[in-house]
Amino acid sequence: MHNYTFHCDPGHGWLAVPLSEIRKLGIADKISRFSYMSGGMAYLEEDCDAPLFIKAAGLTREDITETHTNGPAACRNFDDFDPARVP
Questions:
Q1: C-alpha pair distances (Å), 24 with each of 19, 56, 87
Q2: What is the rounded distance in angstroms from the CA atom of residue 73 to the CA atom of residue 3?
Q3: Residue 78, number of CB atoms within 10 A of its CB
Q4: Are 21 and 57 a contacting pair, CB within 8 Å?
Q5: What is the pLDDT of residues 4-50, one digit of tens each?
Q6: Range of 17's domain?
Q7: 17 and 8 in contact (C-beta within 8 Å)?
Q8: Strands 4-8, 64-68: parallel, antiparallel or unpaired by DSSP?
Q9: Dihedral angle computed from the Cα positions of residues 63, 76, 20 and 52, in that order, rounded to the nearest 10 degrees
Q10: Where are the alpha helices (DSSP H) in 3-84?
């Protein structure tokens, strides 16, 4: 069983997911530009994209670990999600 990390800052949150899993599930074209990508990972925004992945992958709360930062999350500086760049 895979464990996923949900990154939170004071304004928002993102679920870190390998791009390969998004490709396997066939949902890359459903991910919004409000998510990010870097280094083989997607950071799926909490309102629409993360729930889409969670449902498609059949995850439960036990599969997700939360981390919090008081400043801006690092993923805010990553590239916007682009389905054309999912391997």
A1: 9, 10, 10
A2: 19
A3: 17
A4: yes
A5: 999 999 999 999 999 999 999 999 999 999 999 999 999 999 999 99
A6: 4-85
A7: no
A8: parallel
A9: 60
A10: 19-25, 49-57
Tokens of 65: 């670990």
Number of structural domains the chain divides into: 1
Residue pair 14/45 in contact by the 8 Å Cβ criterion = yes
The region that residue 40 occupies, defined by phi over 0 for left and psi between -120 and 50 for alpha, beta otherwise, is: left
CA distance 38 to 78: 6
Q: Is the pTM of this model over 0.90?
A: yes
Which residue is associated with the tokens 């993360």?
50
